[in-house]
Design goal:
The complex is a heterodimer. By secondary structure, chain A is α/β, with parallel strands linked by helices. Chain A has 16 helices and eleven strands. Chain A has helices at 3-27, 32-43, 58-69, 84-88, 125-128, 132-137, 172-175, 189-199, 213-225, 230-242, 252-257, 264-280, 288-299, 307-311, 316-326, 331-337; strands spanning 48-51, 73-77, 89-95, 101-107, 114-118, 139-142, 145-148, 154-159, 180-183, 258-260, 304-305. Chain A has a five-stranded parallel β-sheet with strand order 2-5-8-1-9. The N and C termini of chain A lie far apart (45 Å). The longest helix of chain B has 47 residues, at 361-407. Classes of the chains: A alpha/beta, B mainly alpha. At the A-B interface, helix 1, helix 10, helix 13, helix 14 and helix 16 of A face helix 3, helix 4, helix 5, helix 17 and helix 18 of B.
């Protein structure tokens, strides 16, 4: 690949991304940051956890994403009595015409390109754990047989932060498998007005397909090819280390309010999301600004607060702000500032 | 490609960063030095009243300026050396590239290109081309300007404040003595009073010396008295500083020392002549008795002896051999007399010797009688010299005393300090003053006087008014002083008020200062009000002073203390701490709904010992 073709590839990446974003904006009013985050996770081969109060369009967002890409989409409404087999699928006994009985695997809703796990925290941890293998390795195992999932595979989970009764907080292992956690904000006055006018009239907005599965897979390859300079990589690693209260890079807020910091998956998420951000900015390498831009969605759900932090209502974003303020971009600046 | 250009840019940037960092370090050093010098200056100005007496503000400020300038020079040199040797920036090109990226808004294009240029990825090639497109042609100084550190403005403000302070002091008090402004105004008056008192003392001394009876006449005492009067006039002159007064007194003392020294020299020569006279006359049996008197300093008796000898010569009762010996003795003695005061004596001896040699007994007798008279006059001279010497020494002692008196620093005392001193003096005979929290003092209303009556004797705390002190705000908190119209709001007056009950018009409670007084009520003699033990319930109570025939509410003081049976809170605190830690550990391990955690936290906060 030559230099010109690289630039052409990056331009095409941006064009496709822009088309996806604008088409989704036809259906989803406002929420441009959420749309960008979901597309980033899709192109970086990650999963997204959407958190927001009911009625903000989370489910509609995921449906729209499936429509504009024209890929398989399935929706799972998580309930307390949902079983793992309801998600993954199960072996069923089938009788042939000759009267012979055989086991046949009946695929569950997980076998799709985009899976919407709606209100994921309403299912039991046992059911939630059914997603672990699929989210990380993009395959499921049933009865000793492993079934690969079709690429691209993306799990979009939603959860409601208000209703805590009868819910099961996500296990840390599963939370860690989400590349980004996006907080869906409440729309402002203009957006609310626009939502009202769009959804209560005769003409329901329609979206069209602007990309296909191949485009997404190609864009994923482009993302992986983006280089990252060592000093930027070390900056991202120092950010992750700063979230651990027992590390020397930690800040005061971390030591006071955090029980466990981010895992190495957090660093991977930072770098991958940073690569997408660099491409969208028409740059060919990841910068520290890209890392900073994606720090909050990539790390906020990986910080586990201690009792004091939760009792005082400390938000992980506050701690991440302090970390971003305290960690310098270069290590020499660290030496001179100490 | 632009790798070479990028290297050159980074190299330029590195050097620029080094230079700017060194300058900033230097400026920071200078700034902190200015702060330190300013603090030293303030300390010096504050300590000015304690400087050696006699110096003025102008002299002190000049000294301060010199010291500050030297300090600044020294610190600047140190700052330059330190900034040159120990600036905080290293030579890493990555740092320079990052700085360039940040200042040009390139999002790590240059730094990434610098680090990834060795790789052969197509993306890296595109990255290098992108960096080349965005890198500037030349690195202008505007890209990385020399900005002073944040503390530099503080240094500038303090330096300006120092200059203003010095200038204001120099303009306002060029000749003022080395004191603060307020102290100077007070000290000027005190200086004048002191110098006036010293001058009066010196004048009195001069008059006493002039009027003192003795051998010395007023004219002969004039060098001493005149000098004393001149010194006194100088001290009385308006505007004379302590330093000038001290110099003038020292000058007068030196003059009096000269007078005494001259007088002592004459006296010493005279004594030498008289000793030589006594020695020569003592060699002959005829004049041995006179010589003995002379040797003992009894000139009058020696004169009488010579007069007797003169009569014997006139009456021709001396043998020729004795006359001859006497003549030789007189001639040899005459040669021993060298001082001016004994010149007449020598002349008379010459005449007597000549008359004895010519056998002119009558003439020789007259000459010997004259010699006796001269010797008697010499006695007066000795007495006069002794008196002048004594007076000169006395005057010197007085001038020394005057010098001590002038240089005795009248330490400035503020009104508050004088009030403190007065308060201490007033309470000295009452024992150690007791500090009472005014918030815990309850003044009873109405009631009969416990004891004591009449106005207090202290002056007003606001204006030192010593008039009708019963209306002074120091003694009545609700009335104005008739002179200064100030109300008493000082807690010290409250203390006075609570302690000086024996002289105030308010009622007295048990335990107040009423012991032994004519109208004392029942109660403890302790001033702190522990006359009756309060109940352990710590409820505010109002006690009544019982007095024979009369009752009334009284002042009590509530002492809040721990009940005797109360237990220590240490064990409870330790227990709470222990259980709090256990609870936190448990809460961390278990899933507690978020909504409940706040209640748990509040629970532990409420049972937390205060």
């Amino acid at each position: 690949m030559s230099q010109a073709s690289v630039e052409e590839t990056v331009n095409r990446f941006r064009q496709v991304f822009g088309r996806l974003q604008s088409e989704m904006s036809q259906m989803i009013v406002g929420q441009s940051g959420i749309i960008r985050g979901v597309l980033t996770a899709l192109l970086a081969n990650g999963n997204v956890l959407l958190e927001g109060v009911p009625g903000l369009g989370k489910t509609q967002l995921v449906k729209t994403l499936a429509e504009v890409i024209d890929i398989d989409f399935s929706r799972i409404q998580f309930t307390p009595d949902l079983m793992p087999a309801d998600i993954i699928g199960t072996n069923m006994v089938l009788e042939t015409q000759s009267g012979q009985r055989t086991f046949s695997f009946q695929q569950g809703p997980i076998f799709a390109n985009i899976v919407l796990a709606d209100e994921i925290n309403r299912a039991t941890p046992k059911t939630q754990s059914a997603l672990l293998e699929a989210m990380q390795e993009h395959r499921v195992t049933v009865g000793g047989t492993t079934y690969p999932l079709d690429a691209p595979f993306l799990v979009l989970a939603t959860q409601n932060p208000l209703e805590m009764e009868g819910t099961y907080p996500l296990p840390e292992a599963q939370v860690d498998r989400f590349m980004l956690k996006l907080n869906v904000p409440f729309p402002d006055l203009d957006e609310l007005t626009l939502i009202s006018s769009r959804t209560t009239g005769e003409n329901w907005p329609e979206v069209r397909q602007v990309a296909n599965k191949t485009d997404i897979l190609d864009m994923r390859d482009v993302v992986k090819a983006v280089p990252i300079a060592p000093h930027v990589e070390r900056y991202a690693a120092r950010l992750v280390l700063a979230t651990h209260p027992d590390k020397p890079q930690s800040v005061n807020e971390t030591r006071r309010y955090v029980r466990y910091g981010c895992s190495p998956r957090g660093l991977q998420s930072l770098v991958l999301a940073g690569k997408v951000s660099a491409l969208l900015d028409q740059r060919f390498a990841v910068s520290c600004d890209d890392i900073r831009r994606v720090t909050h969605p990539a790390l906020r759900h990986r910080l586990i607060l201690n009792f004091e932090g939760e009792a005082e209502g400390i938000h992980p974003d506050h701690i991440l702000d302090k970390i971003l303020d305290a960690v310098p971009e270069t290590e020499q600046a660290v030496a001179s500032s100490r | 490609m632009g790798a070479t250009h990028l290297d050159r840019l980074v190299d330029q940037m590195t050097r620029r960063i080094r230079r700017v960092a060194a300058w900033q370090a230097f400026l920071a050093w200078i700034t902190w030095s200015v702060v330190v010098v300013y603090l030293l200056l303030l300390a010096a100005v504050w300590a000015y009243p304690y400087w050696p007496s006699g110096s003025t503000y102008l002299e002190g400020i000049a000294t301060l300026c010199v010291v500050c300038a030297m300090l600044l020079l020294a610190v600047s040199a140190m700052a330059a050396a330190a900034a040159h040797r120990n600036h905080p920036v290293s030579d890493d090109p990555l740092l320079a590239a990052c700085e360039l990226d940040q200042r040009l808004g390139l999002h790590d294009r240059l730094a990434s290109a610098l680090q990834l240029r060795g790789q052969s990825s197509p993306f890296v090639h595109a990255l290098l081309a992108d960096a080349q497109r965005h890198q500037p042609d030349e690195l202008g100084e505007r890209l990385y300007p020399l900005t002073p550190p944040a503390v530099a403005s503080l240094g500038g403000v303090l330096a300006l404040a120092s200059l203003l302070l010095l200038g204001a002091l120099a303009i306002a008090m060029p000749g003022a003595p080395a004191q603060t402004l307020q102290a100077t105004l007070v000290a000027d008056e005190k200086t004048r009073q002191t110098l006036e008192a010293v001058a009066q003392q010196l004048k009195k001394l001069a008059d006493r010396i002039a009027a003192q009876p003795g051998s010395a006449t007023r004219l002969q005492k004039e060098p001493i008295t005149g000098e004393l009067r001149k010194v006194a006039q100088t001290l009385q002159r308006r505007g004379t500083t302590r330093k000038q007064a001290t110099q003038r007194v020292s000058q007068g003392r030196r003059k009096l020392e000269g007078v005494e020294r001259t007088n002592a020299e004459k006296r010493r020569r005279l004594a030498q002549d008289l000793a030589a006279l006594a020695k020569e006359l003592g060699k002959d049996r005829l004049t041995q008795e006179v010589a003995g008197k002379l040797a003992r300093g009894k000139l009058k008796q020696a004169s009488q002896g010579l007069a007797h000898l003169a009569r014997r010569i006139t009456q021709q009762r001396l043998l020729p051999a004795e006359k001859k010996r006497l003549r030789k003795r007189l001639e040899s003695t005459k040669k021993q007399l060298r001082s001016k005061s004994t010149k007449d004596l020598a002349d008379q001896m010459q005449q007597a010797a000549a008359a004895l040699g010519g056998a002119r007994n009558r003439e020789a007798g007259q000459a010997m009688a004259q010699l006796a008279k001269k010797l008697q006059q010499l006695q007066q001279l000795v007495n006069r010299q002794d008196q002048l010497g004594r007076l000169a020494r006395e005057a010197q002692v007085q001038l020394d005393w005057a010098k001590v008196k002038i240089n005795e620093r009248d330490k400035y005392t503020s009104r508050r300090q004088s009030q403190d001193r007065k308060y201490r003096d007033q309470n000295r005979d009452r024992g150690k003053p007791v500090r009472i929290n005014p918030n815990q003092v309850r003044l009873g209303s109405g009631g009969q006087q416990g004891r004591g009556s009449g106005p207090s004797k202290g002056p007003c705390i606001g204006c030192q008014f010593k008039g009708s002190c019963a209306e002074c705000p120091c003694r009545t908190a609700d009335k104005d002083c008739p002179k200064c119209k100030k109300k008493c709001s000082c807690p010290r007056c409250w203390i006075n008020l609570s302690l000086d009950r024996k002289s105030s018009s308010r009622s007295r409670g048990p335990g107040s200062l009423s012991m032994g007084q004519p109208k004392a009520g029942h109660g403890s003699s302790k001033r702190s009000g522990e006359g009756k033990r309060l109940s352990s319930k710590r409820n505010p109570a109002q006690l009544k002073a019982h007095r024979i025939g009369q009752e009334g509410q009284s002042q009590i003081m509530l002492i809040k203390g721990t009940n005797d049976k109360a237990q220590s809170g240490l064990e409870y605190r330790n227990m709470i701490e222990k259980f709090r830690k256990a609870a936190e550990e448990r809460i961390v391990k278990e899933k507690v709904p978020l909504g409940r955690r706040e209640y748990i936290k509040q629970y532990f906060q409420r049972i937390k010992p205060k």
